[in-house]
Structure to design on (355 residues):
């Protein structure tokens, strides 16, 4: 009987350690944070001009969490996002034009204008989607982790959520299952101190979200969410632990949203002193200073970088607002898999119909 030659699978490339990062890579992290900030500032402006309509929860101030975490994973890993998820999508390398078009409800957007601000998904970048339901993505991330384990994939899932979601039943149920089944999930709580207008300290019986990890047989740690490389280091370690079959990790990243929960939020529950403190710890300013001190970046290079980002945002706005059409009403049933519509004789079942 002919012997079958065993073919060893090539070990997938890992994300580089912080100590091995090139100057180009670090500047790329800074640029990505700048793009997210500029994008969110433009979104807020378009909301004020009533060009972009509907609810939108901007990510400004939290950029180091998304960029640090997403730079620590590879192209075989997955992400589940939240209602404040523009930053996650962009940190994974989403196209600014397609993102802006989606928020404007245009046919050229990632979800053909149907997802909008809170429901963007980009499966090509392993972004399994955002959700408007607080804590709704935590079971999805857990399920993705289970799928990776059952398929024997060398993959990890990053599951983002806010401090408010940590009080939802989905959080506790999901982390309990992930701990019991030893799933490759990195749970990242972006603690921006408030769930809508309620301070986390008033809503939770325990001071730290990460302390809850002990109840679910996983490590829990707190990091400075304003420092991109600190977030990245924590996620690198947690992702490697998951790949080794050692299960999930809960990371609590302390951060701050600069604007209100949504545009209608006047932020009267926050003090000016608190806001000033966090603005002084702006993640972009902190990382820029680090790079200047290292000799990686000059003020002139930073100004040029800002100019490039501004041009990219202007191009995205033009593409979305001026050049992209709204969806054709005749296509309303495209991409609907199962549903019911009102017909002449009552409800009619529709089957899968792809556009």
């Amino acid at each position: 009987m002919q012997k079958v030659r065993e073919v060893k699978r090539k070990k997938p490339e890992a994300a580089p350690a912080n100590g091995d990062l090139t100057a180009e890579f670090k500047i790329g992290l800074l640029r990505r944070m700048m793009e997210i900030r500029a994008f969110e500032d433009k979104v807020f402006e378009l909301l004020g001009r009533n060009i972009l309509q509907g609810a939108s929860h901007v990510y400004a101030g939290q950029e180091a969490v998304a960029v640090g975490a997403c730079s620590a994973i590879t192209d075989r890993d997955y992400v589940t996002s939240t209602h404040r998820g523009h930053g996650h999508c962009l940190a994974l390398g989403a196209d600014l034009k397609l993102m802006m078009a989606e928020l404007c409800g245009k046919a050229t957007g990632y979800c053909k204008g149907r997802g909008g601000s809170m429901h963007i998904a980009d499966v090509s970048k392993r972004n399994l989607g955002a959700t408007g339901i607080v804590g709704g993505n935590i079971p999805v991330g857990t399920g993705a982790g289970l799928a990776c384990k059952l398929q024997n994939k060398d993959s990890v899932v990053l599951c983002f959520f806010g401090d408010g979601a940590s009080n939802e039943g989905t959080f506790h149920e999901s982390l309990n299952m992930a701990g019991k089944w030893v799933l490759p999930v990195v749970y990242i709580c972006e603690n921006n101190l408030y769930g809508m207008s309620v301070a986390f300290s008033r809503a939770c019986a325990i001071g730290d979200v990460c302390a809850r990890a002990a109840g679910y047989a996983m490590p829990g740690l707190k990091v400075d969410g304003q420092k991109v490389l600190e977030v990245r280091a924590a996620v690198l370690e947690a992702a490697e632990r998951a790949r080794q079959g050692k299960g999930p990790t809960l990371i609590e990243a302390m951060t701050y949203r600069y604007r209100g929960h949504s545009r209608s939020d006047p932020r009267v529950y926050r003090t000016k002193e608190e806001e000033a403190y966090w603005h002084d710890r702006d993640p972009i300013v902190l990382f820029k200073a680090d790079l200047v001190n290292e000799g990686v970046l000059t003020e002139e290079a930073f100004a040029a970088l800002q100019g490039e980002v501004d041009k990219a945002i202007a191009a995205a706005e033009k593409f979305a607002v001026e050049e992209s059409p709204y969806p054709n009403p005749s296509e309303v049933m495209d991409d609907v898999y199962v549903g019911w519509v009102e017909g002449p004789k009552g409800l009619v079942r529709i089957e899968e119909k792809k556009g």
